[in-house]
Amino acid sequence: MSSSTINPAALLTMIATMENQLNQMKVLLGAEGGIVAVTKKATKAKKEKDPNAAPKEPNVWIKFTQRISALLKGADIDVGAAPISKQFASTLKDEKPYAEWTDEAILAAWPLWTKPEQSKMAVAKAASSDEASVASGEKAAAKRAPMSDEAKEKTAAKRAAAKAAKAEPKAEEAKPKAEEVKAVTVEAKEPAKKTGKAGKTVVAKKEAFTLEQLQDFGEHTHEGTEYGLNVRGDLVNTDGAYVGQWNEKTKAIVKGAAPADWAKVAPGSA
User: Are 193 and 204 in contact (CB under 8 A)?
Assistant: First the structure.
């Protein structure tokens, strides 16, 4: 084809048409500017439980309590309420490892053991309640303390300065820094329990327990079924598997996923 037969206007029109068709194909394929759009996140398939699988072997704590209960019954020792043998087992566990306790040593330790007035769980809850009461009392006392004249003058001066600064904001202060915006965004995502004065969000304080307290599972019976229960309310079955949370107010089991620290808390992890 010679240069005399080429029509530049027709050629440009053809190129524009081809580019338009290519862009439409990109949109249909879900790609624009080389970036593939992700429309839906793939969900992980739920693993089904094998009904023919052998039952999970109980953890070392459950085995230890079952062993002690069988020994005491075999020796015709009446332990009374069911939690008594668990409290006795917990005392032995604190003295030395499970494997070091022989049958003879366990039976010999029974007459020397004295039942504690309160369980470990009750002691931990009482201690947590006492700490909260003391902190509340200290805050109330500080709130009731009268202000001195000097303190009143300083407070009034601070309020006047803040009011003046608010009335005439500086240009650079009008735009928040990136770090401040990020901090506000993070705080807004925290779970709010209630709203106090001036619309300030107050986050409820959670009880803190030691790892040793969380790993101590006492005996708990609900609707004829035996479970293990720790101070936080984590409930496990006789195999040591997580069942849910025990609600003391409603006397019911709340089903749900295991806590994030369950690998450290689970029976037998000590």
Answer: yes
Q: How far apart are CA 50 and CA 37, in angstroms?
A: 38
Burial class (CB in 10 A: 0-12, 13-18, 19+), 241: middle
Q: What is the DSSP letter of 177?
A: P
Q: What does the pLDDT look like over 43-73, one tens digit per residue? A: 566 777 777 777 777 888 888 888 888 888 8
Task: Give the other-Cβ count within 10 Å of 268's Cβ.
Answer: 13
Task: Kindly report the number of other CB atoms within 10 A of residue 71's CB atom.
Answer: 17
Instruction: Tell me the backbone φ, ψ of residue 266, rounded to 5 degrees.
Output: -50, 145
More confident residue, 174 or 223: 223
pLDDT of the residue at 17:
92
Burial 86-114 (b: 16+ CB within 10 A, else e): bbbbbebbeeeeeeebeeeebeeebeeee
What is the rounded distance in angstroms from the CA atom of residue 253 to the CA atom of residue 221? 11
Question: Are the C-beta atoms of residues 58 and 240 closer than 8 Å to each other?
Answer: yes
Q: Number of helices and strands (H, E) in the chain?
A: 10, 9
Residue that is written with structure tokens 């509340």 in the block = 136
